[in-house]
Amino acid sequence: MTNGTVAAPTPAAPAALPGLTAAVREVLRLPTRDTVTDSQARGADCVWCGRGALNAETAVDLGERHDEPGTGWFPRACLKCTADRAHKGLFAHTPACEQCVDEAVLCPVGRTLYRLVREGRRA
User: Fold this and answer.
1) Residue 76: enclosing H or E segment and its boundaries?
2) Is 0.85 topped by the overall pTM?
């Protein structure tokens, strides 16, 4: 800038969650398409609690889903619900996972769940 000031950075939308694999989604226990509203299916409302007004800063993109051939839906969740599900998922996943029992930092599912818990607690 000409007067020596620096422009404030534009906040970027959060990147898609790397590591949100089918195994992680299974632990999070996403609902099926027929049990959610249209708003939840298109990602406008949290897929678990139903609260709306999700945006790029307040939502976790859970990835496109195809429960039936030819139908797609785009679940997203609020940070609080995602952290809650990930926390419960850690307790379910860790004791049954040989990698988590041996060295948890090497388990991609456990690491992703732990990161989701931490990100949700910051909100």
Assistant:
1) strand 76-78
2) no
Side chain identity at residue 47, one-letter code:
V
Contact by Cβ (8 Å): 80, 48: no
CB 40 within 8 A of CB 47: yes
* Tens-place pLDDT, residues 74-123: 999 999 999 999 999 999 999 999 998 898 889 999 999 999 999 887 76
Confirm if 45 and 77 have CB atoms less than 8 A apart.
no
- How far apart, in whole angstroms, are the C-alpha atoms of residue 95 and residue 93? 6
- 48 vs 20: CA distance, rounded Å: 17
CA distance 37 to 51: 11
Residue 122's CB is within 10 A of a number of other CB atoms, namely: 7
Q: Are 21 and 115 in contact (CB under 8 A)?
A: no
Dihedral pair phi/psi, residue 23, rounded to 5°? -65, -40
For residue 76, the tally of other CB atoms under 10 A from its CB is 21
Sign of the dihedral defined by the CA atoms of residues 100, 105, 106, 110, in that order: positive
